[in-house]
Design brief:
With 297 residues, this protein is an alpha/beta fold. It is 36% helix and 23% strand. The chain folds into two domains: 173 residues, Rossmann fold, CATH 3.40.50.300; 104 residues, GMP Synthetase, Chain A, domain 3, CATH 3.30.300. The strands form two sheets. Strands 1, 2, 3, 4, 5, 6 and 7 form a seven-stranded mixed sheet that branches. Strands 8-9-10 form a three-stranded mixed sheet. It binds guanosine-5'-diphosphate and magnesium ion (MG).
Length: 297
């Protein structure tokens, strides 16, 4: 069996989580149209096992979007991504625009020049790129001579995802099966539950609030016919708390309902979900609080 680790890297919103979901065929990484949705490295496990030469296991790590750090959380996120580059067998670098379009991709390319791991460039969202634009993106990146493969794909429609998997497989070497065949992610369900809640908060909120939101599960009780979950939504400002709760609690109710429905789908049981909103000022700049939310250097 061939096996190995693959890091998915790219600017926020370029489609990393969507690609991971397309590969795994199950929703494990949350996706929204707001940047910085993915904060932790989520591992997805793709296993093909028929007892022939084709057998393989690929473990995908969906890293947080890289950008020039502006605060402590930003720099922890970038560090996590950098360590991922060095430890994996292949790096997938996703783009959806020309290199000259903005500073974000240039910053990543500079980082990639200094690692020895093979890097595949994925030009994503080809479903909405016209051929001329695609050609410009391709040529600009190709000239750099940094990439081992350049593949155009659409994570959303699944186009070329199989071709990508085949190319990845050709880079892996014989290795152990790290995880059982039926395991799609090594993250516990509870983590995915808190990510679903965070996704709904982001979807329901105005632009200024989302980055300062974290979820902490306070209670999680599995009973025979229902799972009871209590979660705290932390935000940075008192005014944000009001926005999250909304008029007569309407917004929070909407967040709770859509999160509950999706969690019920994930767990396959009825769910009772209780949400609270609390303010923790500047939590993104505090080591103590970052640790208690599970972010570590
Ligand atoms: P991430 O921040 O890199 O993980 O990006 P997401 O996977 O969360 O995707 C960000 C947004 O881009 C979502 O609205 C996706 O539906 C959209 N998106 C991702 N891949 C594609 C694609 O191949 N084509 C199109 N048209 N949209 C995509
Ligand atoms: Mg993501």
């Amino acid at each position: 069996m061939k096996s190995g680790f693959i890091g998915i890297i790219g600017r926020p919103n370029v489609g990393k989580s969507t690609l991971l979901n397309a590969i795994l065929g199950e929703k494990i990484a949350i996706t929204t149209d707001k940047p910085q949705t993915t904060r932790n490295s989520i591992r997805g496990i793709y296993t093909k096992r028929n007892g022939d030469d084709d057998d393989c296991q690929m473990i995908f790590i969906d890293t947080p979007g890289i950008h020039k750090p502006r605060n402590k959380l930003g720099s922890i996120m970038t560090d996590m991504a950098l360590n991922t580059f060095k430890e994996v067998d292949v790096v997938l670098f996703l783009v959806d625009d020309e290199l000259s379009a903005g500073p974000g991709d240039k910053y990543i390319v500079e980082l990639l020049k200094n690692i020895e791991t093979p890097v595949f460039l994925i030009i994503n969202k080809i479903d909405k790129l016209d051929p001329e634009k695609y050609r410009r993106i391709y040529e600009e990146y190709n000239e750099l001579g940094v990439f081992d493969e350049i593949i155009g794909a659409s994570a959303l429609s699944g186009k070329n995802v199989d071709a990508l998997l085949a190319k990845l497989k050709s880079r892996l070497v014989e290795g152990p099966m790290y995880f059982p065949e039926d395991m799609v992610t090594d993250h516990p369900e509870r983590f995915i539950v808190s990510e679903i809640i965070r996704e709904k908060v982001l979807l329901y909120l105005d632009e200024e609030v989302p980055h300062g939101v974290a979820i902490e599960l306070e209670s999680y009780k599995e009973e025979p016919s229902i799972t009871k979950i209590g979660a705290v939504i932390y935000c940075e400002r008192k005014s944000h708390k009001g926005i999250i709760i909304g008029k007569e609690g309407k917004k929070l109710k909407g967040i709770g309902k859509s999160a509950r429905l999706e969690i019920e789908g994930l767990l396959g049981t009825k769910v009772f979900l209780e949400l609270w909103v609390k303010v923790k000022e500047n939590w993104r700049d505090s080591d103590f609080i970052l640790n208690s939310f599970g972010y570590r250097k």
